[in-house]
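Structure, all two chains, one model.
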Amino acid sequence: MRIFRLLAIITLSFCACACSHFKSGSSQDATQVSGLGDPDGFADENSSNRLKAPYNQVYHFGFNKYDVNQDDIASINVQASYLIAHTSAKVRLEGNADERGSREYNIALGWKRAKAVAAILKQQGVSDSQIATVSYGKEKPIAAGHDESAYSQNRRVDLVYEAK
Amino acid sequence: MIRLFKILTVSSLFYFSNAFAVLEIEITQGADNAMPIAILPFDSQVTGVIRNDLKNSGKFRLVETADPEAWRSQKVEGVVTGQIKELGGGQLQVTFKLLDVYSKNKLEKEFTVKTEQLRKLAHHISDMIYQQLTGDRGIFSTKIAYILVSERHGRHAKYKFQVADSDGYNPHTLLVSNFPLMSPAWSPDGRKIAYVSFEGNRAAIYVQDIATGSRRVISKFPGINGAPAWSPDGRKIALVLTQTGYPKIYILDVATSRLERITDDWYADTEPSWSPDGKSLIFTSDRGGIGSPQIYRIDIESKQVERITYSGSYNARAAYTSNGKAIVMLHKDGNMFSIAEQDLQSGRITVLTQFGLNESPSVAPNGKMIVYATNHNGRGMLAEVSIDGRVKLLLPAGDGAVQEPAWSPFIN
């Protein structure tokens, strides 16, 4: 009968866990209270990156490619100049991949893309402390489809201002 | 040959007040060599669960008759009977008997349980029947952890980290987040789960106690904190960090927080998984060619690396089967991502799934079934396949996309 006492404990604790979970809506529990949406939106929603700073940017990558498109260099440099002039400004580079393949391997692929953009910012003279890098792999697709047009939109780096 | 079965929706399941099927099992392919057994109804709730368990294992075919003559003609190998008695005070006495027709062995047990424990008892009885008749330990009392993604709008979605019984009942939410959750990994004692959370737009690895719900951060370095995997003794966690600028495998000592880097170079290494003896890790790496990840093994002490997979342009997310003689992994097969098994001695690969985009295989603790995530008609759901490829199940979710299943160890 020992097993059933144990099972009962597990059941009870599951319940206790669920209850305490919903009680604690404290600000420390960031996962519960965080908001949606970026106030500035993203450049891809307006089809192309603005050559203005500070604006959130989207840089796309080719299939199996981890180097930045030549077309995006000018836009990255504009953000770099702003960051150099505003040392309290901070950006987050979010690396992303398309849906094919395993989740954690896609985290590694998104990471390579975010690092490629970070390298250009640093080359321009932006301080390390102004850049945070995160890879979402295939966890945050923009396009929901399962075809190349969706895939090419999802292979990207989002440059997001955390402070301006 | 594919036999299609429709799921039996057992109305008596309403009896279990908190039983709610998020995942409904549908057998898409049954085993041709299923063993005929007869289960004589003694309590609709208990026998309903036992019938579903045994049928969904793919190992059994239910013979619907109480006539001993028909059992003989249909070569029935096991007959289950039982009794249930109210003792008052919400207590029930459940007796069950299994007659193994061939060996003439009898298994007879008596239990006293509360009404709300009946479903768990039924799974426990299924485990005993399965073990008696097949010789393998049953997995009906185990659990599956997974991530449920709903309300996706562009970049944003709601992520729930849930644990349910292995038949999809009794889902419990351990965490709700507006940020992605990934890579749940059970501790070997089944009491804790490590996972990756991106709350605050930073990756971190947490360990959460399943009973209390309390959790702590075990890794939150700049960059990637990913792919946690517990050592077989539960003392260490292998994980992926980018401290050198490249995704590398590390081992964290859980008690001392001491960190050791295991792989070293400029390639992407990820998805570590421990050998059953805890002496080596297998992992995914693109060191053989960019865009073509393969599985490698590293000896933790000598750091010697050896390539394991050679067949196909993409092999990833590998884990050992419970006896350590084979690995199960994600294998690209033409344009399809399949779940495949590779025998380690012969190197022979067996593709276990036929269609679509599949990923995240996780092996049941008895080594007989694999749960994985699949994209079925554009929806993310869980599916299961037996290690011999003969039995296939689909577990459709009620709401949202289910991904990254992780099968628990035996819990007792």
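The two ends of chain A are 63 Å apart (CA to CA).
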